[in-house]
Every structure is written in structure tokens, then in C-alpha cells.
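Notes from the 1:1 (GR / supervisor)

We went over the backlog. Supervisor wanted to see one worked example end to end before approving the batch request, so GR pasted a single chain during the call. The sequence is below; no edits were made to it. Supervisor asked that the structure be written out right there so they could see what the output format looks like.
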Amino acid sequence: MRDTLPPSRREIEVTSTFVIDGVPGQLATTATPSGEVGRVDLRAGTRGSTLAGLTDALSSAITTALRAGAPPATFIDSFRRTHYVPAGTTSDPDVPYATSLGDYLAQRLHYNHPDGPERP
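Structure output shown during the call:
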């Protein structure tokens, strides 16, 4: 499967580490030089925990949809301002507060890979 391979040299990977309400995590995304997001990998919680399983499933679902042609804005709009724990102040200076892991993912995805006229 392509998800197990490292990103190609033509892809740009952006990795962010964070802590939300004491829960450490990492978000890695890859995009082509043209800005097309191809992979989302969100990790949080300890290995084998429910939270780790849920973030793995969420990452797989988003990546599958992106590769099928879904625009990243779909996920940004869907997860932005969702409310569940962990939530609160983050250690990420670009995303200082998140109402959930989904909200953090949406904000960071938008920050890392801006859409349309916001894209550099």
C-alpha cells in the first residue's frame, strides 16, 4: 500500500507536533508541489489506546477520500469547531486553541495547505 511508503521526492511533507489538554500528538500531511493534499496522518494517545485507534481510522478515511478526489475544504469545514475532548489550549503557536482533535486537524490543514486565493 502506498500509505506505508515514504512520500515521493515530488511531495511536500509538513509535520506538526502538539499537545492539547495534556495529550501529545503529531499531524503529518503531504501535498504535491501544486498544493494537492494527498495524505493526512494524525496520531494522538498511547499506542493501543482508543484515542490512537480513532485517530488512525480518521487519518485513513481522510486520506482515502482525498485520493478519490475530495477537496481538503470538505474536511476543514466538517471538523472545524467540533467539540469533544481533548480540547483547549495547544502547544502549537499557529493553532493556540482547539475545541477538539478534529478542530485542530482542520485548523492545521488549512494553515499548512491553504485553499484557493490564500495559497501562496
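Supervisor's comment: Strands lie at 12-20, 23-31, 37-44, 88-92, 95-98.
Batch request approved.
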